[in-house]
Amino acid sequence: MRLREELFLLGYDNAGRPAVHADSLDIGVAGARLIELVLAGRVGVAAGRLSAVDTPATGDAEADGLLTAIARSPQPPPLAGALSQLRTGAIDAVRAELLAEGVLTKAVQRRLGLVPVTRYPADEAVVRTITVRLWYAAHGRSQPDEPTAALCGLVHAVLLHEHVFTTMPMAGLEPRLRDIRSHLAPPVREIVDGVGTLVSSAAFAIYR
Fold first, then answer.
1. Which residues pair with 119 in a beta bridge?
2. What's in the keyword line of the UniProt record (predicted)?
3. Residue 146 CA to its chain's centroid (Å)
4. Among 128, 127, 152, which residue's Cα sits nearest to residue 139?
5. How far apart are alpha carbons 121 and 114 in whole angstroms?
């Protein structure tokens, strides 16, 4: 399962209700998409800017468009700008992918018997597998593999950790997640930190 799909699934409860603001999850999913390309050796990140390392077609139209745009840019594009652009419709796109894969189902209910509300409950076994992997990472003494560490970092950056790690005291969780983030590969850490900065800015804008 792709990193963006795992983060999306963690962003909702068992009934398909969002655990964080949609803007935060959009930003996190955008960051996950960039991290996927970094881990695949397709994109580099340094000093807050992106570079295309390997540009042959991936078969993913959105990823291919992004790689082409980065490669053709006269200057390395800023990470913050890329996250801001990729966040638009990010969770809607991943929801469509997961519906097609059968991981999500669409359920329409009526609030107070009148107002229709659409939820997207997930396959609980799939979510449990992801959550258990993160639980072991958070309780472990060694650095988890890069995709798991990146997911831990994104969960922390979009403020999902209290929802995901419900049985772990915050006093021990915060330092552990920060430690995992600090040991990420520099390009991945830049993206995670960029996600955290944008999430904070979006939250400030909402309550301004």
1. 107
2. Golgi apparatus, Lipid-binding, Membrane
3. 14
4. 152
5. 21
pTM over 0.70: yes
Q: Output phi, psi for 169, to 5 deg.
A: -60, 135
Give the burial class of 92: count Cβ atoms within 10 A of its Cβ; 0-12 exposed, 13-18 middle, 19 or more buried.
exposed
What tokens does 73 get?
A: 């840019």
Strand partners for 110: 116
d(CA 134, CA 139): 9
What one-letter code names the amino acid at 196? G
* Residue 109 bridge partners (DSSP): 117
What fold characterizes domain 3-207? yeast vps74-n-term truncation variant fold (1.10.3630)
pLDDT in tens, the chain (208 residues): 999 999 999 999 888 888 999 999 999 999 999 999 999 999 999 999 999 888 788 888 888 888 888 989 889 999 999 999 999 999 999 999 999 999 999 988 876 667 788 899 999 999 999 999 999 998 887 789 999 999 999 999 999 998 898 876 767 888 899 999 999 999 999 999 999 999 988 765 554 4
